[in-house]
Amino acid sequence: MTEEEQETGSVPWSSYMNYILSLVPIWAVIPFLFVILIAQGISVYQSWWVGTIGEPQQYSQISYHWKIGIYALLCLCGLIFLIIRAIVSAFAVKRSNRVIHQQLLSNV
């Protein structure tokens, strides 16, 4: 490698952008962001629900079992979306590695 071809300093932003664009196909970005948004929404709602049912005056007409059942359902939904997000993230990283290595090998 000649001195003209070498770069010094930090990694260029184009390398980061290349990595981000290789994570998932363009059509999958919106559904993936939607899954993340739903998971975060469920997490926020879980916290709100626990704070709400903790006060005895509010929602006193709802039985204890219903309150716990709703919280358990929220936890289950949160777990499902967490697993989906983790699986999609793992496949995205695997795809990114494959795409970047194919690009590197095609330039050799």
From TrEMBL:
<dbReference type="InterPro" id="IPR036640">
    <property type="entry name" value="ABC1_TM_sf"/>
</dbReference>
<keyword id="KW-0547">Nucleotide-binding</keyword>
<keyword id="KW-0812">Transmembrane</keyword>
<dbReference type="GO" id="GO:0016020">
    <property type="term" value="C:membrane"/>
</dbReference>
<dbReference type="GO" id="GO:0042626">
    <property type="term" value="F:ATPase-coupled transmembrane transporter activity"/>
</dbReference>
<feature type="transmembrane region" description="Helical">
    <location>
        <begin position="68"/>
        <end position="93"/>
    </location>
</feature>
<keyword id="KW-0067">ATP-binding</keyword>
<feature type="transmembrane region" description="Helical">
    <location>
        <begin position="20"/>
        <end position="48"/>
    </location>
</feature>
<keyword id="KW-0472">Membrane</keyword>
<dbReference type="GO" id="GO:0005524">
    <property type="term" value="F:ATP binding"/>
</dbReference>
<keyword id="KW-1133">Transmembrane helix</keyword>
<protein>
    <recommendedName>
        <fullName>CSC1/OSCA1-like N-terminal transmembrane domain-containing protein</fullName>
    </recommendedName>
</protein>
<dbReference type="InterPro" id="IPR050173">
    <property type="entry name" value="ABC_transporter_C-like"/>
</dbReference>
